[in-house]
C-alpha cells in the first residue's frame, strides 16, 4: 500500500443553522443551545437510514468545516483558549485549519422528521449554515464518556460573560421571541470575538438567528448596543 | 451550491495494531486495552503538529474503516448488540458499512515519540492494522462528556465473558508475556464472533497480537483450546 492514501467522501447531509457567518460561532459544541436542522441529501435521505436513532438523546456529527478560507495547513496554530498568543500543534486543538477540514460535534437530538425528506432537529451545534455532513453516529455513553480524562490547556468550560442590553437595544428586544433573545445571549456570553481582538471600545457586528446584533465587550461583560431584524427567511 | 458535494481527504497517519484481521476486533473502543501506534505520514509527520498533545490523556481518532469489503451501503443494518436479528438504521449504529466509511474512536494517549517520525502510542483502540487515519483531536471532557446521555439499545457496556484456558493451551501460555495473555483474554471476553454465529461446539481461530488463538464459546464463557506463536514481526 502506498501513502498518502486519498479518500473521496460524499456529503450525506447539510446543516441549516442560524449561524450564517463563521464569526461568532461558539467554539465548542454544546456551549450554546442553538437549534439547527440536519437535512439528509439524496440518495441518503431515506427514513430507514435513521430508524432507531430517536432512542438516542445525543449524536455525533462528522462534518466538513464550511466557509473557511482555504489557507494552507500549518503544523502550529494559536488556539483562542490560550489568548491567541501561544502556538500549539494543530492535532492538539480542534482548530478549523487542519490537514483534513473535518469537524466533530456532539449535539442533542430533539426530533426526527421523515414526512418530507429526512430532517434531524438538533440543539447545541456549533455549525455554520450550509455545513456539509459526512456522517451521523449515536453517542454511546459507555464508550464515549471518559469521566477521568485529563485535558491539557482546555480543562474547563470557557467562562460565561455577563450580557446586558443597552436601553435602545432593549426596546427593540421587546418584539423578539424569548428563544431568540436566549440564543443571542448564549452566543455573546462565550465571547465570539477572534482571540487576538480585545478592543473594549470597538463595536462588533454579527448575524445571530434572524438579527444583526451590535455589541462591545469590556471587563464588565458584553453590552448589546443595537439589534435589527434581517429580512431573509431562515428556518 | 450543488449536492451531493464530494470531498477528497488524505490519510495523515496509519495505525500499527496487533489486529491483523477484522474478525475479533472489539466492537467499541476502550473495551479492550489493546496497545497500538499511530504513525503520522509525510507531509504531516512533523513534531510541531503534535506540540501540546501530550497534555491530554485521551484523543479522538477519525479514521477510514479498513479491510472491509466494499459492499454497497444499505439503509438498514443488523447491529451485533441486538443479536444480529433486528434491523436498524445505519446512522443509528456505528456499523462499518455506512455511506462514508468513517470510524470514530476515543483512545488513551500513552506516549508521543518524535525521534524518528512522529508516533503516538495509544491504548484501547479497536483499529485494524493498516487503518488510515484522517484526523486526531484532543478529547475535551467539558464538551465531550455527556453524563446524562440516553443511548437506546446500547446503554451499557457489553457483558464480559469468563475466559478459561484449556490445559494444553495453558502449558503454552507459560511462555507468553502477561501483557499478551491479558490482551488475548480482553479480546475474547467481549465475544469476537460475528453476531449471527452462535455454535457452542465450533472452534474459532483468530489472530491476536503475535498469536493464533483457537477458542470456543458456550454458556459457561470462552475456552481457549489452542494457541501458537505466528512467525512474523509486528509494528
What report would you give on this structure?
Two copies of one chain form a homodimer. By secondary structure, chain A is mainly beta. Chain A has two domains: 13-144, Beta Barrel (Elongation Factor Tu (Ef-tu), domain 3); 163-229, 2-Layer Sandwich (YaeB-like fold), CATH 3.30.2310. The first copy, chain A, is built from three helices and 13 strands, in the order E-E-E-E-E-E-E-E-E-H-E-H-H-E-E-E. In chain A, strands 2-3-8-7-4-9 form a six-stranded antiparallel barrel. Chain A has a four-stranded mixed β-sheet with strand order 10-13-12-11. Chain A has a two-stranded antiparallel ribbon with strand order 5-6. The longest helix of chain A is centred in the last third of the chain and has 12 residues, at 178-189. Chain A starts with 5 loop residues before the first strand and ends in a 6-residue tail after the last strand. Chains A and B meet through strand 1, strand 4, strand 6, strand 7 and strand 9 of A and strand 1, strand 4, strand 6, strand 7 and strand 9 of B. Strand 1 of chain A pairs antiparallel with strand 1 (6-10) of chain B.
Amino acid at each position: 500500500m502506498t501513502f498518502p492514501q486519498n479518500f473521496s467522501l460524499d456529503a450525506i447531509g447539510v446543516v441549516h443553522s442560524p449561524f450564517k457567518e463563521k464569526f461568532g460561532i461558539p467554539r465548542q459544541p454544546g456551549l450554546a443551545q442553538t437549534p439547527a436542522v440536519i437535512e439528509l441529501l439524496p440518495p441518503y435521505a431515506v427514513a430507514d437510514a435513521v430508524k432507531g436513532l430517536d432512542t438516542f438523546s445525543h449524536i455525533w456529527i462528522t462534518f466538513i468545516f464550511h466557509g473557511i478560507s482555504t489557507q494552507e495547513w500549518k503544523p502550529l496554530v494559536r488556539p483562542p483558549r490560550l489568548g491567541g498568543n501561544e502556538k500549539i500543534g494543530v492535532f492538539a486543538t480542534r482548530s478549523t485549519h487542519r490537514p483534513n477540514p473535518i469537524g466533530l460535534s456532539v449535539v442533542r437530538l430533539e426530533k426526527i422528521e421523515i414526512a418530507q425528506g429526512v430532517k434531524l432537529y438538533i440543539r447545541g451545534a456549533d455549525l455554520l449554515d450550509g455545513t456539509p455532513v459526512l456522517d451521523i453516529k449515536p453517542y454511546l455513553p459507555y464508550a464515549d464518556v471518559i469521566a477521568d480524562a485529563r485535558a491539557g490547556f482546555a480543562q474547563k468550560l470557557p467562562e460565561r460573560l455577563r450580557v446586558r442590553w443597552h436601553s435602545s437595544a432593549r426596546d427593540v428586544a421587546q418584539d423578539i421571541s424569548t428563544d431568540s433573545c436566549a440564543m443571542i445571549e448564549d452566543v455573546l456570553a462565550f465571547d465570539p470575538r477572534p482571540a487576538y481582538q480585545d478592543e473594549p471600545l470597538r463595536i462588533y457586528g454579527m448575524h445571530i438567528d434572524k438579527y444583526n446584533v451590535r455589541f462591545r465587550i469590556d471587563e464588565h461583560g458584553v453590552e448589546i448596543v443595537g439589534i435589527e431584524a434581517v429580512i431573509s427567511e431562515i428556518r
